[in-house]
Specification:
Structural class: mainly alpha
CATH architecture: Orthogonal Bundle
Number of domains: 1
GO molecular function, one term: cadmium ion sensor activity
Shape: globular
Helix content: 55-70%
CATH class: Mainly Alpha
InterPro entries: ArsR-like_HTH, HTH_ArsR_DNA-bd_dom, HTH_Metal-responsive_Reg, WH-like_DNA-bd_sf, WH_DNA-bd_sf
CATH topology: Arc Repressor Mutant, subunit A
Strand content: 5-15%
CATH superfamily: Winged helix-like DNA-binding domain superfamily/Winged helix DNA-binding domain
Largest sheet: 2 strands, antiparallel
Organism: Streptomyces griseochromogenes
Radius of gyration: 15 Å
Strand order of the largest sheet: 1-2
Distance between the termini: 34 Å
Number of strands: 2
Keywords: Cadmium, DNA-binding, Metal-binding, Transcription, Transcription regulation
Number of helices: 6
Order of helices and strands: HHHHEEHH
Protein name: HTH-type transcriptional regulator CmtR
Length: 111
């Protein structure tokens, strides 16, 4: 029997996915359109092995799904609302100054 993830678990998974710049770039790329791993690796300029690890994380977090397409596998966002959520997050943080980081908070365990 499947259990539904709690709100906290859902947010934690989303936060884990967004904690890495490569995964952020992947989510933004998939927000624009479904894609094949080889194309994603090329467009992001990373190795296929590295890409595979990040896609596995995003799959495990429930944010992306695989879609068989003949002999290939295509990746896409698990829910189209994720694309809207990414857009909302991007526009909600425009007040963050580009020269500020979360390093102090990370060192104190706040992030």
């Amino acid at each position: 029997m499947r259990t539904v993830a709690s709100d906290i678990d859902v947010l934690a998974r989303f936060g884990r996915a967004l904690a890495d710049p490569i995964r952020c770039r992947l989510l933004l790329a998939l927000r624009d359109a479904p894609a094949y791993p080889s194309d994603l690796a090329d467009s992001l300029g990373i190795s296929r092995t590295r890409l595979s690890n990040h896609l596995a994380c995003l799959r495990d977090c429930g944010l992306v799904v695989t879609v068989p397409d003949g002999r290939r596998t295509r990746y896409e966002l698990a829910d189209e609302r994720l694309g809207h959520a990414l857009d909302d997050l991007r526009t909600a943080v425009v007040a963050v100054e580009s020269d500020r980081t979360c390093t102090d908070a990370e060192e104190k365990g706040w992030c």
